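Okay, is this right?
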Amino acid sequence: MENNVLLDNHITVEECSGHLSSVEDAIYVIGGKWKLKIIIVLQESGNIRFNELQRKISGISARVLSNELKDLELNGFVKRVVHAEQTPVIVEYISTDYSKTLKPVIMALSDWGKNHKNNIREDVFS
């Protein structure tokens, strides 16, 4: 039974394949150059308008920001709030409670990135 072979005494090939599929799904949803940056800014800022969000994310174009916000909204990470009772109409974006479940992932990635940068520096300069 090939699927029951243990890879490192902890996980089978079948379980590894399932984990790999889950990681691919996660990367598909939050991967890319901008999505995590947008999520982080929204979590730090609370309600924020489009132009202010664009100013806080250096280098992102309005078109790319708009497309990324649509993707994030479809996946439940961002909520678009329209205040139609005001003139002019105000549109704000806020992070959802669901997006806040990414905080441990973001912190783990941050820690890993710091360690990786230090490892690279040690290898280059030693």
